[in-house]
Amino acid sequence: MNLIALLIGLVIERLATQLFHWRRMRWLDRIIDFGFKQAERVANWPPLIPVVILAIALVLPVYAVIFSLGGTLAGFTYLIMAVVVLFFSLGPNDIGEEVDEYCEALESEDEEAIQNAAKSIVEGDVPADARQRIGCVEEAICVQANNRLFAVIFWFVLLGPLAAWAYRVTDIIRRRAVFNAARDDKAESNVVLIRDAAAMLHGWLAWMPARLTAVGYATAGHFDEAIAAMRAPTEQRDATLSEQSENLLARVGTAALASEDRQDESITERGVRGAVAANRLVFRLLIIWAVVIAAMTLYGLTR
Span 105-110, mean pLDDT? Predict the structure, then answer.
């Protein structure tokens, strides 16, 4: 049932682009901020504990709905709820649409629009230098595809819709914690500690799917270059678990692209080509995952 719901959810996710704004769920920010304030009151606790409690509190309502209604109508209700939960677990933004907006901004040569589109993909500051920005965006596409898409699919297949929603909840909490910490001037404040705890929790859940996605990039792109990048030694002794996963995805993903500069190519053309190639790599990997999931579904139905 979960695999069928996943295939339906992926089709809807590709087609219902006009509904993507529903997935931003900005109303959760108030609940998360309230949870952060309560966490600051128990400063003697390890910051990871209140973050985990907050995540559980956001997961429990979904669990209650699935548990109470999932068995009705011969399981059809569960199928509908699983599709809905998957839709809200993916994203919140579609990486393909953001790449299209970034390419349009490049072609218009509007520097402000380029910066804004690049920041949306990177989810942070981007270099002012055009060539450095091109590489930064390509790496971010490979990283964000796992965060927004493949990690959700992994947990959905492994443990069902509740696990996919739990992963998205940790990501929402992490994003809000990063936003709050960026506004805080005190480097050693509880806000920063909560941010680090939220990143740690999310990093645990992203660790395994990040490595599967990296292997997938090698399969969907230039295999030899990607495997070489995966095996290459790196200086990551001080990197957090999340940073290690993101560095791996960026390194392997861009190696799988094998994009080289061309002499007769302008900066704009190079930026568009690289972003489109990264987006196509993600789409090819999604097709591979969909085929594998479909095969698993058919095998389960015919047993």
Answer: 93
